[in-house]
Amino acid sequence: MDQIIAETVSWQNQIHSFFDNQRIARLLKQSNVAKQCGIAPVVVMRMIFSLVFTGKNLFRYLQAHDSGSEVGKDAVYRFVN
Asked: What is the 8-class DSSP label of residue 66?
């Protein structure tokens, strides 16, 4: 169990450093992706990007992080559309 948690934290750290190194937040801002309310678009993008490496789909991710998730289903759908 501890190994799974350590791997998840490792993936999250690597994804976070990738977003920082590639300046994804700046690219989103230059593409006119701006937040209307709620959380920053880069956080939503990072969560969607991390789904690929965790092997979960959006539904399973939201079920697992139901109470503590900062990104809701409506935020993801607004970001994608």
From this structure: T
Instruction: Supply the pTM of this predicted model.
Output: 0.72
What does the pLDDT look like over 18-63, one tens digit per residue? 888 889 889 988 998 888 888 888 888 888 888 888 788 888 888 8
DSSP structure class, residue 31: T
The residue range of the domain holding 26 is 2-80
- Contact between residue 52 and residue 65 where contact means Cβ atoms under 8 Å apart: no
Number of folded domains in the chain? Answer: 1
Q: Do 44 and 71 meet the contact criterion of CB atoms below 8 Å apart?
A: yes
